[in-house]
Fold these 2 entries.
Entry 1:
Amino acid sequence: MDFPPNQGLDQEEVTEQVEETIADNEVVLFMKGTELMPQCGYSRRALGLISEHREEFETVDVLESLDEYRTALNEHSGWETIPQTYVDGEFVGGSDILAELEERGELAETLDTA
């Protein structure tokens, strides 16, 4: 059996999906893996922090087209690292920023502005 290389989305498709997802959802977490199976510790941490304060939010698994998601997200945030969290279309940060906001008691308010 032949397994072709990464059959992910092309850059234009990913950029369009990122823009639409950020615009259409109050809170979005772009992460490695899914809610049920996060594929990195940082994504798991971000997911856990958001879940403590919100029941409903969108997650996007970037692994299918990782390089394309990095490029598209960098255009929005200036950050190349994943996970990335957006609230009301604005970039909030990755897991470290979410943890800092939680430590200062500001994460619930940040996530509730939606």
Note: The chain is about 45% helix and 15% strand.
Entry 2:
Amino acid sequence: MDGIVAYQPYSDSLTVLQCENHEKLTQWGAIPLLVIDVWEHAYYLKYKIKRTDFVDTLFNIINWDNVAQRLDTAVKLTK
């Protein structure tokens, strides 16, 4: 399962999407800004069943400036 933070231009807001199958992700108009893969294959070798520890670690290494730049670009492209 993936978690996706996306910009939704029609409501000028951020949204969080849950994606179990990328091919079936059909929220039209949402512009992905950050995707976190939390399927077991992404973390099991190092974190075993501790998914929360994996996500906590990810939040410490995400390039938040890049995510902010993606949001800025998405807003500019849709205005």
Note: Residues 57 and 73 are 27 Å apart (CA to CA).
